[in-house]
């Protein structure tokens, strides 16, 4: 043990479990080439939400929800869809029957129907398929030793015979139906001896007489995930290299997510030669789920590879899936969760704000719309707009936030371009407001806080009425009446110097340290905004005002610093 690591044994019974390499023979590592490959195109995605996802639901989908899910999947662009296990229930059977009705199945979509290797179930599957113009019949049987011994009670030879018998029955029932193709899954492939999985798959390739124009699908599931993803990749590459009639076999994977690495397993499997991926939207499915097709596809998108599925309305997709599954998508779910395009922390917000500003400039320089410009914004792996999110949720403010995020919200919502020193000043105001509650503050609340601190402090204000006007070339005059009734009068070479002269004559020392302003292109009340930093009675304050022009707003802003000072003074004296 290193002296810098002070961890101690946990007392957990970890000794009860064996590592993957002791549970299954692993193919030789020397052959592997997947680590140096890249993903350059989308695989064939096959959603199994209506079968594997559905069988994992406490309340399986009713016909209406099945129809809704199927419509969503076709709308998104999936072309091969597992639609059910028709021999398992009336519901699944009837749904396949619905799809067999004339015009029900889109021309370019192939349904997959799932069956165990039992004569009665296979017959019933074909009964459901009657009239379907095309379909994949998906046969499965567990092939791993524990399942052979404990569940099925067959040795290797007997199980192979059972599978071949079922596959032969399927072939006979499909005779004269060229639209029917075949899929085989050696369930728990990842715990099956590699030579046995290969032998059974090759037998079926021959029995079903696979050809490039009528390929068979060998789907190799990690039914229960048992190892790091590199091990699964080695298992897949072994099959990829040794399967017979490779150009007549579609190599498919079906990772589950027991270790939380289903996505990694699928990605490494694709590097290792897989061409087709079965999974579910947002990772629904048995136990911790099937691999999440949304994450997989959008991961490709982030690499500049078209996922060939439309995720541009991800929130809409999510709503439909949540409705069908009656399960929520978590807030941190990759790409789709409510919080995944949002930064609360100050330095991230600062970087995102700067990144978005640079992105807008770059798009303008390139002469393309921002949604077409190359993306390189810190902390945002994709442009939220790609998946239909707006930028309003990108930055949210709480006590962890800094000036950058706060300034971003005021800029994006109200069009205010706060000078840097005002940003710093206001961040302290926000920090004081949020530290107490620890709660998030919305853009509207931020604006209220901003108004109270800089725009309307000490309202109704020290001055009852005032005016400023040019008095000659390069000269302005300021006149006003204090609420106490005292009159103010001053002149200067601009409205602000005239105001400070009037205040000085009344005994209030106001020094304008800086001012800035701009016109407003948003819906904030006013056409221009001015920011004034002033030292009033020895203390530096900021004032902000909206007005019809920047000079007019500047006088208001300066007065707001005076009002704040006078309010503070009367508060202290009272
Ligand atoms: C990894 C996966 O997702 S596999 C898919 C699992 N999905 C489902 O099970 C959902 C739908 N299933 C069902 O509705 C039912 O299980 C049915 C209708 C298919 C079968 O129901 P039953 O006939 O009552 O059998 P039961 O559900 O108890 O299944 C166990 C039997 O099937 C056998 N079996 C399990 N898998 C297979 C298979 N792939 N091929 C042939 N037989 C199998 C078992 O050995 C056991 O046989 P036994 O009763 O002789 O011991
Ligand atoms: C493909 C089938 C058999 C399956 O759902 C699995 O093995 O997880
Ligand atoms: Mg499964």
Automatic annotation (TrEMBL):
This is 2-isopropylmalate synthase. Its EC number is 2.3.3.13. Its main location: cytoplasm. Homodimer. Catalyzes the condensation of the acetyl group of acetyl-CoA with 3-methyl-2-oxobutanoate (2-ketoisovalerate) to form 3-carboxy-3-hydroxy-4-methylpentanoate (2-isopropylmalate). It comes from Nonomuraea wenchangensis. PROSITE patterns: AIPM_HOMOCIT_SYNTH_1, AIPM_HOMOCIT_SYNTH_2, PYR_CT. Its cofactor is Mg(2+). It comes from the Bacteria. Pathway: Amino-acid biosynthesis; L-leucine biosynthesis; L-leucine from 3-methyl-2-oxobutanoate: step 1/4. GO terms for molecular function: 2-isopropylmalate synthase activity; acetyl-CoA C-acetyltransferase activity; magnesium ion binding. The keyword Amino-acid biosynthesis applies. It is found in: Cytoplasm. Keywords: Amino-acid biosynthesis, Branched-chain amino acid biosynthesis, Cytoplasm, Leucine biosynthesis, Magnesium, Metal-binding, Transferase. One of its GO terms (biological process) is L-leucine biosynthetic process. Mg(2+) binds at residues 52, 254, 256, 290. It holds the Pfam family IPMS_D2.
């Amino acid at each position: 043990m290193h002296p810098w690591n002070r961890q101690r044994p946990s007392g957990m019974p970890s000794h009860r479990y064996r590592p993957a390499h002791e549970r299954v023979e692993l193919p030789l590592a020397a052959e592997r080439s997947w680590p140096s490959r890249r993903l350059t195109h989308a695989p064939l995605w096959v959603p199994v939400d209506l079968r594997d996802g559905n069988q994992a639901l406490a309340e399986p989908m009713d016909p209406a929800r099945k129809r809704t899910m199927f419509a969503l999947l076709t709308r998104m662009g999936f072309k091969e869809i597992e639609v059910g296990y028709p021999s398992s229930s009336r519901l699944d059977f009837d749904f396949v029957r619905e799809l067999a009705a004339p015009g029900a199945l889109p021309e370019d979509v192939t349904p997959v129907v799932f069956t165990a290797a039992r004569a009665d179930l296979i017959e019933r599957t074909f009964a459901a398929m009657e009239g379907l113009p095309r379909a994949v019949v998906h046969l499965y049987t567990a092939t791993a030793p524990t399942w052979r011994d404990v569940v099925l009670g067959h040795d290797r030879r007997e199980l192979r015979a059972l599978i071949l018998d079922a596959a032969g029955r399927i072939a006979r029932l499909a005779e004269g139906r060229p639209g029917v193709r075949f899929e085989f899954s050696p369930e728990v492939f990842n715990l099956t001896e590699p030579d046995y999985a290969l032998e059974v798959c090759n037998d079926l390739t021959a029995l079903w007489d696979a050809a490039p124009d009528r390929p068979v699908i060998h789907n190799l599931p990690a039914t229960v995930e048992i190892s790091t993803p590199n091990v699964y990749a080695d298992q897949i590459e072994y099959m990829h290299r040794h399967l017979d009639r490779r150009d007549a076999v579609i190599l498919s994977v079906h990772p589950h997510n027991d270790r939380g690495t289903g996505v990694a397993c699928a990605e490494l499997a694709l590097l290792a030669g897989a061409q087709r991926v079965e999974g579910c939207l947002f990772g629904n499915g048995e136990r911790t789920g099937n691999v999440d097709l949304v994450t997989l596809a959008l991961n490709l998108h982030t690499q500049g590879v078209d996922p060939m599925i439309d995720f541009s309305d991800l929130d809409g997709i999510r709503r439909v899936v949540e409705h069908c599954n009656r399960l929520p998508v978590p807030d941190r779910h990759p790409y789709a969760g409510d919080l995944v395009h949002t930064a609360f922390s100050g330095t991230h917000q600062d970087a995102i704000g700067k990144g978005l500003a640079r992105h807008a400039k770059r798009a303008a320089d390139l002469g393309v719309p921002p949604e077409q410009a190359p993306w390189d914004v810190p902390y945002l792996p994709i442009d939220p707009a790609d998946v239909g999110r707006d930028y309003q949720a990108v930055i949210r403010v709480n006590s962890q936030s800094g000036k950058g995020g706060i300034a971003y919200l005021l800029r994006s919502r109200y069009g205010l371009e706060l000078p840097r020193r005002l940003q710093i000043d206001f961040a302290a105001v926000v920090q004081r407001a949020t530290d107490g509650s620890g709660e998030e503050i919305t853009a509207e609340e931020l604006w209220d806080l901003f108004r109270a601190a800089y725009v309307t402090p000490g309202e109704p204000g020290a001055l009852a009425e005032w005016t400023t006007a040019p008095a000659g070339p390069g000269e302005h005059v300021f006149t006003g009446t204090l609420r106490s009734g005292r009159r103010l009068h001053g002149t200067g070479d601009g409205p602000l110097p005239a105001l400070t002269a009037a205040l000085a004559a009344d005994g209030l020392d106001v020094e304008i340290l800086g001012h800035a302003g701009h016109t407003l292109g948003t819906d904030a009340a006013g056409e221009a905004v001015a920011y004034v930093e002033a030292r009033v009675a020895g203390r530096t304050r900021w004032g902000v005002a909206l007005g019809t022009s920047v000079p007019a707003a500047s006088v208001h802003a300066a007065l707001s610093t005076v009002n704040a000072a006078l309010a503070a003074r009367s508060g202290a004296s009272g």
